[in-house]
Amino acid sequence: KMAEEAKKLAAYSAVDNHVQNNQVVGVGSGSTIVFAVDRLAERVRQEKLNIVCVPTSFQARQLILQHSLTLSDLDRHPELDVAIDGADEVDTELTLIKGGGGCLTQEKIVAGCAKHFVVIADYRKDSKVLGQQWKKGVPIEVIPMAYVPVSRMIVKKFGGEASLRMAVSKAGPVVTDNSNFILDWKFEQAQDWTEVNTAIKMIPGVVETGLFVNMAERAYFGMEDGSVQVRD
Ligand code: DER
Q1: With a threshold of 0.95, does the pTM exceed it?
Q2: 107 assigned to active site
């Protein structure tokens, strides 16, 4: 399928351009990162690279172990050389919406610990403004006991609507790797994302937002025509 090929293109470009020997690599979550881990493992084998990987979720941890890559953590490596991760949408300022896979909190922590944070995505994530293509809203991780007041406060302050993310293969709400709930906030129009991100984080009960502002250094987009577009 075209989008899968595009994901692979972006993932391979990022791994080939940003991973060197003796590095600590943050491994993101989602489906695009699977191609990046495949390429990482291939390069480790072929080039005998000495790298360690820090996961951003149970899923990322499984990927690292399944590919026999060296698993590490932020206790051992609080500073990473590079973090590679996907995104649900990227705007022209490299502001991201992340959290479609529910892993935004550990992803943002790891991205924040990396000298370089690089995003990999297919052409469907490449937008001018947030909300143009991604219609599921901004994911927000919340402490379970607070999800109702938090969702009310967000709507009161910024409009739109916020809904509790319900699980598909489990009765009840999605529970994150950190044992929290997720609200998906469908905003009505583009905002000052720096201001909104800060304001939402200040609401008691909010753990993290899926707005990654001024964090990504570069995004690789795999395109329909088989090319790769780079946005800095
Ligand atoms: O949930 C997440 O933050 C993922 O990284 C998501 O943003 C990208 O997932 P995808 O590569 O499956 O589109």
Answers
A1: yes
A2: yes
